[in-house]
Amino acid sequence: MSTAGRITAAALVAAAAVTITACQGQSVASNQVSPAPATSAAANELASSTATPGSGSAARPGTPAGKPAATTPAATPAAAKGKAADRLVACSAANSKVTVNPISRPINHLALTVTNTSAKPCAAYSSPALIFDDAQAAIQVVRESVPQSVVMLEPGQSAYAGIRLSSADGSGAHGRTAHDLTVYFSGRSGNDSTGTPAHLTLPKDTHIDDSAAATYWQSDFQDAIKW
């Protein structure tokens, strides 16, 4: 081979070496800039143990994915109050003393008093149902006298109800003299009687007519007799 041929061949070999080196360098640089994404098995396990499928929220620590932790609902104040109300008994002649007395003002009125004589609280629900002598039905109730809340009686405490015997102007029909009074006590619903009724002897010459009415139980004596 001539000298010129050898020079040309050497040049071609050198050019090929430079090309190969450049390509290798470009491949290394490319691998360093854009590494292939890799997810470890530990990362996959952590992701699966902290996310609840389909919930979009994290599970409580220590709780297997997809299995909600067992919880005990806390008692709400309303629920606790309801249970306490269920245990509360109504006031009646079985746990209370009942008396009836005349008052000077307003005229034609009596005051009915119930006093808790037991060792536990009782509730004076709604209004007393009052029957004079052998009447077939209780007298009417003064609806405007509804208290703001049920009257609760601790041992020794009293509640009051006013009894209007007759109209002040004498316009009531079927006036007569009554001798006995039966007091029935309302249950929690206010629609039925409960417990033991009280049987009382009325003051002498108690006159009643068809306008007779009783108030709801009140915690204050003056609230009971103003009707």
TrEMBL record:
<feature type="compositionally biased region" description="Low complexity">
    <location>
        <begin position="47"/>
        <end position="78"/>
    </location>
</feature>
<protein>
    <submittedName>
        <fullName>DUF4232 domain-containing protein</fullName>
    </submittedName>
</protein>
<feature type="domain" description="DUF4232">
    <location>
        <begin position="91"/>
        <end position="218"/>
    </location>
</feature>
<keyword id="KW-0732">Signal</keyword>
<feature type="region of interest" description="Disordered">
    <location>
        <begin position="40"/>
        <end position="78"/>
    </location>
</feature>
<feature type="signal peptide">
    <location>
        <begin position="1"/>
        <end position="22"/>
    </location>
</feature>
<dbReference type="Pfam" id="PF14016">
    <property type="entry name" value="DUF4232"/>
</dbReference>
<dbReference type="InterPro" id="IPR025326">
    <property type="entry name" value="DUF4232"/>
</dbReference>
